Amino acid sequence: MMLCAVAAVAATSLAASNSRDFHIAPMQCYTNQPFRKLSGMLSPSSIKWSEMEKVDDLMPNTEEALEKRLGGEEQERDNNAEEKNLVLQLGSNDVTKLDACVRVATRNFPNLIRELNLNCGCPAIDTGGASSYGASLMKDAPLTARLVESMAVATDNIDISVKCRIGVFDGEEDVRSLGENDYQYLSNYISTIHDAGAKHVILHARPAILSLSPV
After folding, report:
1. What is d(CA 203, CA 183) in angstroms, rounded to the nearest whole number?
2. CB 148 within 8 A of CB 137
3. Phi and psi at residue 159, in whole multiples of 5°?
4. Angle at 65 between CA 24 and CA 109, to 5 degrees
5. This prediction's pTM
6. Residue 39 has what pLDDT?
7. Dihedral through CA 120, CA 123, CA 124, CA 130, nearest 10?
8. Which residue from 87, 132, 184, 191 has the fewest beta carbons nearer than 10 Å?
9. d(CA 160, CA 147)
10. pLDDT at 96
C-alpha cells in the first residue's frame, strides 16, 4: 500500500513537469560550476542542478557569493539562445534570509535560473544531520510552507519546487518500516507545501536519517 501510494504522489509530481527532461541531480561537493560546465559540454540540453547552497553561507555578501558560484554560467548564457537550464537548490530555515537570497538570485541571473528548489531531503553535512534545515524541515510542515511562500513571493516568473524524502528518522535506532500513517503524513506535508506555492515536489524515495551525513 505504501509503495503504491508513494508512486501515485511521484506520478503527480512528474505530470506537473516535463518528464522528458534529463536532469543531472544535485550532489553535494560535486555539482559545482566546473562540473556543470562539463555536463553542459557533454549534454547541452540537460537540466543542471546546483549542489545545495546554504543560505547562511551566502550571507552577508549574497551578490558576491552567488557571482562566484554562478557568474560564469550567466555570462555564457547571455551569448546562448538556449533555454535556461539551471535549478538553484537552496538550504535554509530562515524566511527573511531566504527571501533576500531569492531576490538577489533572480535579479542577477535572469538568463540562467529556470527553477528554485528548497532542499527538504538532505541531512546537513556540517552538523552530521543535527540541524533545522534540509531533511529536518520535513518535521515542520508549517515552517516549510512559510519558506516556500517566501520564495514564491520573491519571484513572479520562476517556478518553486521542493525536494524531500518519503519519511525522516532522527537516528539509526529509530528506523522502521513505513506504514499508512507515514504516508498520510507525507501526503499532508506535500499538500501543505503545494498550497504554499510549490509547483511540484521531487521525492527521494527513501527515508532520511538525520544522524547520518550524506557524504
Report:
1. 13
2. no
3. -70, 145
4. 60
5. 0.82
6. 74
7. 110
8. 184
9. 11
10. 96
Distance of alpha carbon 165 from alpha carbon 182, whole angstroms? 11
Q: Is 200 helix (H, G, I), strand (E, B) or coil?
A: strand
Place of cell 510549490: 198
Q: What DSSP string runs through 105-158? A: HHHH-TTTEEEEEEEES---TTTTT-SSSGGGGGG-HHHHHHHHHHHHHH-SSS
Residues 129 and 46: their CA atoms lie apart, in Å, by 30
- Residue 16 corresponds to which cell in the numbers above? 506537473
Q: Is 160 helix (H, G, I), strand (E, B) or coil?
A: strand
Distances (CA, A) of 191 to 85, 95, 128, 186: 27, 20, 29, 9
Q: How far apart are CA 67 and CA 81, in angstroms?
A: 21
Largest CA distance in the chain: 53
Q: Compute the average pLDDT of residues 102-120.
A: 92
Residue 74, pLDDT score: 57
Query: Strand pairing partners for 115?
Result: 87, 159
- Among 152, 149, 120, 150, smallest CA distance to 137 is for 120
Whether 138 and 182 have beta carbons less than 8 Å apart is answered as no
- How large is the average pLDDT for residues 152-181? 92
**3-class SS of residue 1:** coil
